[in-house]
Amino acid sequence: MHIDKTERVRWRHVAARGAVGLLAAALAACSGSSPAADTVRAATLRGPGSNPLVGSLLAASSDLGASRARHVGVLVALSGPARPAALYRWTSAHHLAVRWQHGDSYALVRGSADAMSRGFAVPIHDYRARSGKRFYATARYARVPRALRGAVTDVGSILSYTPKVTTALPPGGFHADVPAGGLMPNTLL
Asked: Is 0.85 topped by the overall pTM?
């Protein structure tokens, strides 16, 4: 599949907003809560492969159980810019889809929450933030599946939470801390 320039810019913008705003959003979501309750919930989200930043957000949210999201996506880092044939075979076998553009060293893997959960061997749950916003997330990082080792070097966060932007973005559409042209997948993974 071809990823056009508009979609590429949109993904860079989403990644930049997420990277810059996620920490602030997670900290804001945790403020005003019971320290004892947050400590207990956060402790359950720690362990091998846990994502501490997302763990804080999840500890401050209500777990609604296994996600029923039909459209879940995650960026994966590829070992090089060649067509990821192994990734295409693997996603087809797991009822997932790939979006990759010739020459890119990353790809977008998409599918239902159930298929993504089975494929990446990580539970994906739905959550409700204190603001009432509903989102899906994993409590730990997804690992590169054994069948993809060598073709895929890393898997991004499986998370649909995007913080509310409270300030206008400067000309060019990126926060001042984001380099010109946006963040590239290798700087996020």
From this structure: no
